[in-house]
Amino acid sequence: MRHKQIHLLGLLVGALGLCGLGVGLALGTNVAAKSAVKITPAISVAAQKTASNTITVARVISAEDSWLVIHRVVNGEPEQVIGYARVKKGTLNKVKVKINAPAKVTPVLAAMLHRDLGKKGTYEFPGADVPTISGKTIVIIFFKIQDPPVQEKNTPTTSTKPAPEQNSAATPKATTKDPLEAGSKTGQDAPAKTAEPMIKEIALTAKQWSFEPNTITVNKGAKVRLKITSVDVDHGFSIWEYAINKTIPGGKTVIVEFDADQAGTFSFVCSIFCGSGHGGMEGTLIVNP
Ligand SMILES: [Cu+2]
Asked: What does pLDDT average to over the chain?
């Protein structure tokens, strides 16, 4: 596998060399990548602790020199950038990203690939260095932080407002409501019920720009099986409190299973940019105590 990647990279470098002028253009590398061999950008990252203020991303595959960007996640949406690292094109393992704003770490973070389009080697986002699009979707992965900072929970309204300019153009929804507030309301102890867990199967349709039904209700303790069908383009399905983030490819059905072990009201959102109405593509999961 590793040898194959290196071989592909060699081909790509060769193609770039032949392109000559094209390399100098902002889009040159992208064009060359398409005409030579197709590298599908991807990120994989495991749940981890961030006590050392470093995120370790298990693997990054990029078709060009890029930025690996860590966003905090609020209401299932990637928001402010809290760290980034430059990644060379190709496959890199165990990429470390220093977190510049440790107090801003949220229980779920997102790792996203951004292009290096402006001044080479200078991180410019908000600005020229926009998120990398592969196919029709942003290259992004959500992951859990096992030791999020406590102060975030106790002081949800700090004087530092979430910087609106940090919001990617591709993620137009910029909710400033802190999900931890909602979380604490819904986190109260539920009266114990000793009903047998049962599988609750619910079919959902994802389309531009809604989920149908957009409210799903289950009982705490249920094993939930969602059958989500996208009837048009690629969508995502994310419930950050349950650390769920699945891609629903256009025209496909994907099964999402989870144990409804936390009572409360949770938002589910589309986590893949799917057009102008993406930011409003959401619904509600109610888990009755
Ligand atoms: Cu979407």
From this structure: 75
CB within 8 Å of 99: residues ≥ 6 apart: 50, 53, 54, 55, 70, 82, 83, 105
CA–centroid distance, 281 to ligand 1, in Å, is 6
CA of 35 to the centre of ligand 1 (A): 29
Q: What is the pLDDT of residue 190?
A: 42
> Order of strands across the sheet with 140-144?
77-87, 66-74, 108-115, 140-144
* Domain range 191-288, CATH class: mainly beta
Question: What is the rounded CA–CA span in Å between residue 264 and residue 181?
Answer: 12
Taking each helix axis from N to C end, the angle separating 28-35 and 2-19, rounded to the nearest 10 degrees, works out to 120
pTM (2 d.p.): 0.45
- How far is the first Cα of the chain from the last one, in angstroms, to the nearest whole number? 48
Report the CATH fold assignment for 39-151: Immunoglobulin-like (2.60.40)
CA of 208 to the centre of ligand 1 (A): 7
Domain ranges of the chain: 39-151, 191-288
Q: What pLDDT is attached to residue 37? A: 67
